[in-house]
Design brief:
single chain; about 30% strand; 7 strands; Chitinase A, domain 3; 5-stranded antiparallel sheet; alpha+beta
């Protein structure tokens, strides 16, 4: 998406959106079904509770895991962790974007703002 956006407008006018939550998808996916949202920290706790390994998708640069719920339904969970967050921060810098924005404040993980303030000059824009 960023490759397309930067092909039609100036990089320094683009804010990359970043979710502060993950998705828990029931499998197999059937049209019309929706994933449940969960915080990134809740996703990690779910993997521990289910005693399943967290895996890494190199194409998406994001962690995920699979588990079977007590009702026998398999699930895929995708979320962000500290490493995937840093990789996305680096993408903002490498592409010389204006910055980033977050979706669903209140779902952030403990590392979110520490990593952000370590990497960026953070400022709150005035209300319009």
């Amino acid at each position: 998406m960023l490759d397309f956006a930067t092909s039609v407008m100036q990089n320094n006018k683009i804010l990359m959106g970043m979710a502060l939550y993950g998705y828990d998808w029931p499998l197999p996916h059937t049209p019309g079904t929706r994933a449940s949202g969960l915080s990134n920290l809740t996703a990690q706790k779910l993997a521990m509770a289910q005693q399943v390994p967290i895996q890494w998708d190199s194409a998406a640069q994001s962690p995920y895991f699979r588990y079977r719920a007590s009702d026998g339904v398999d699930h895929d969970v995708w979320f962000e962790d500290a490493l995937s967050t840093l990789i996305k921060f680096q993408l903002v810098q490498d592409m010389n974007l204006h910055g980033l924005t977050y979706w669903v404040l209140g779902q952030e993980s403990p590392w979110t703002y520490y990593l952000m303030t370590d990497r960026f000059n953070v400022r709150k824009l005035p209300a319009r």
